[in-house]
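#struct-queue
[09:14] JT: dropping the first one here, sequence first, then the structure tokens:
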Amino acid sequence: MILKKIIIKEQKELYRHKNYLLTLDLEFNNTKKEYSNSSNLSFEIEFELIEFLKNNSFSFTIEEEKITDFKKQITAKYKILQIDKNNLFIVEKLSNSKLYLLNQNEKAINILDLKKTLFKSYKKVKNSSFEGTLSLNVLEILASNQDDFKELFTTLAILENHDSQTLLYIEKLKKFKYACIAKIKQKQQDMFLCNCVPSFFPETKFYIKGNRVFSDYTEFFLNYEQELKVWKYLYSNKELVGVYKEPSLYELFIGRKIYILDEFKNRVKVVIKNAQFLENRGINITLSNGVSSQKISQIFTKEELLKRVIEARD
């Protein structure tokens, strides 16, 4: 893609027109001390800008810049024209043509391809993770309907600074989530989902309540970001859905902290650097204060050491 770039170096009296230039989709580069456009200007804006510069005797140059990065090509060619929170257009910058109309109401998301006169309406997604923002609701809908409006999905994802592959992955996670919930409910047992999820305490057990994930450690439901971690973990470890995993010594103790008494009898926290199970005796640990490490003589049962770890948690 070739971008026609108008470059205006900083010059006398130009600063007085800064706000006007910015309204014409120009950007100011503080390093180069110049105004220029990083995307296509419509014919009308280009004509207005050049007339303004000539009439005010401001010097400028026109250069052609080759853009090879796909995302930069999209942002150079298209823009979002937001009418209100429920209506927006996708606009081609060069011709100022409206390509798509996106609309939402309480019940549906509506998409109209203005070039192909193609219209589709989608029932709104319940419990949307995107908090009702029109652009992101559309992306969520299109991630669920991958054969519809493929070009719009790619373009809108880039304009909203979202990775389309991530959106598709999250959509797969959602489908996986509801399949897992159905499987757990079918067992009609205690609704246990999993444990030993990275980023959570390993002894934490997660349960399904309704369509949400409940932690027995906090006795609260997980928020969206926390749930996402659980479902990502299970998506990569499908065999552990509804299966209790015995936490390893590494998961329970390595990198965890416990309290000890230092040489001045002060209670201080140190890190468990290593934990080793001694057959028929218990667990022997190596502690680190950040400077040196030392294996201690005390032997712990798993329950005793876990109690010490829990006690030292912030």
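[09:21] JT: and here's the second one, same format:
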Amino acid sequence: MVSTADVRSLFADDGLPEPDELPWYVAPLPRWLENFGLRLAGVIALVNLVGTAFGFWYYGFHPLPLSDPLITGQFAGEPSIMWAFVPDSPVATLFIAVALGLWWLGRPSEYWNVMAFFGCWKLGLWTPFVLLAFADGFLAGTALPMYLFLFFSHLAMVVEAFLLHRFSDFPLRAVAVAVAWYGLNDVLDYFVPIVGTPHHTLLPGQGYDAVAGGFTHPPEIHTVAAAGAVTLTVTATLLALATRRAKARNDRRA
């Protein structure tokens, strides 16, 4: 039988990285929730791997059911050379799964940590943003349970992002890599697609344009999605740098 002490230990600091004194805006979670998340890091990593698999299926990689083409959905409408830049949320959940998994195994990596922070912050907020901005269109073609699942599961990614400061120093080299990756994503998704048309996640009102070799991008949709994405990349950068600065200041005081 699980005792009260066992339950309390899930929320205690014992054996976990000592939390730094950080501004509320880079460490907004209550201590007990941070501790709980870190205690379950291995489980959360596995859940995110399942989410990654589902995400690739959502974008059109369909090994199951066998009656479906292997490549369908958005993947089928995108040039294969650009596929790495299409499934943004599944890539973000992969980043956090690897970051938490490596820490749980005692082999943390600052590059994975910071990439995970950027991905979970950006996609964890961008997806609910567009789900609300284009709610009528989404609900016209998406069952309400799936709509709610997408909304709240992405918000949970934001919570995960704020576990990382407990074991990451957010070094400049890792922040630079994350800025480069997510900045490139924004360029390809909204401004200069290089091949075909912009590659962001499909939104209501888009259709396939065989002549252009990609999907249509009505300005009233594209502009809103782009504004959200770029804003979140910038704010992720500012939060990462603020976290690094605060942790460095604490180190100097020690």
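[09:30] RK: nice, looked through the second one.
[09:31] RK: The two ends are 42 Å apart (CA to CA).
[09:31] JT: good to know. DSSP finds ten helices and two strands in the chain.
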